[in-house]
Amino acid sequence: MIDMGVRDPDEFSAYRWPDWSFWKDQPGRHGAYDRGRVVVAVAMALASLTLIVQAVDIAHGTRSAPLTSLAIGLVACYGVGCLLAPWYGPMALRRGRVAIVAVMFLLGAAPAVLLGKSAYLTDLTYTLSIGLMLLPLRYALLLGLGTVLGQVVWMRLAQGEVAWAQVATLAGVTAALGTVFALNFTIGHLRATREQVRRLAVNEERERVARDMHDVLGHSLSTITVKLGLTRRVLESSGDVAVAVGQVTELENMARTALSDVRATISGYRTLSLDSELAGARMALGAAGVRADLPASTDVVHPELREVFGYVVREAVTNVLRHSDAELCTVRMGPDWVEVSDNGSSTSGPGAGNGLTGLTERLSAVSGTLEHRYAPGGGFHVIARGPAQAIPPTPAQPWRPARATEPPGTERPGTE
Questions:
Q1: Average pLDDT, rounded, for the chain
Q2: What CATH code is assigned to 274-416?
């Protein structure tokens, strides 16, 4: 059951702290992320040029020289803060962000308080913009609302009227700069997401190629190894050159076939035939001295499942050659299932290695399942099932052997 009280991490929340982590250096993408940072800094620098007007107005005021100098110094510090805060603030921790906004607010409000001019509070728009950039939206909006109300109340009490043009400037400039930050924030996250998707696609393709190479070369190299051993024994025992030459010829053909499969796999155009896999399994098992009990035809299998079942037969037979001491390997199949079993010892078998994991992924792609287990009396079973409910049933064919169309049970079909 879905917990409705748990918020989706990707869902917008006014309480969430803005995540500017995409500004951090990332391999191969320094330019794109630094560009967004520069855009924000330039936008703030251009907007804060209006502080020059405030400094000039303070300099032409009637206050004492020390107070005027202090106020101009505070405006200068405020201007420097407007440049540094949007550059370093997004990388700061939460307490650091709060401290930056607080210091900026004090620097921006200090000249207005020292000189008693509520109009100077309009320049707090830069602090509010930085607050929108660094703080959760809820708190930034509360800070902005409090500043606007404070300026309105101060004007009403001190002057008896409100200069709505200045209030509108405070709110308008804040909204404009906040929009620039929000757009930069969104674009930055989209770029970061696109980069992540690209990396995932590359990793997925690598896994696919690795799985295909394992499926192609694993079976071929196992068969070649077995036949090389047989050739060596023939030469050592009887010295029958004709038999050895026949084995070497088959090895040459298998090597060429494996090379063609590798080239086709890299090109992405390789197709696999269940009939050819059964024929290859018969030859490989025979070369290893394992008796093969294989179906004579694959017509019973649904066409949509023949390719993936070919991978199942290839991998399961390869595991028998590699890991099993079996004397018999049996393959049975139906319209939407295939079973490969052997009579090896109960302690032999491949376990859940890369091959079986790859088969599970291939079957999942066609909504199928893979089972593998040790039999109680010895031997290892691999059973693959396709989506029977999604494929229309094949009409009954009385002339086929009954054991080739019955789904596999707990016992291996066709054995005592």
A1: 78
A2: 3.30.565.10
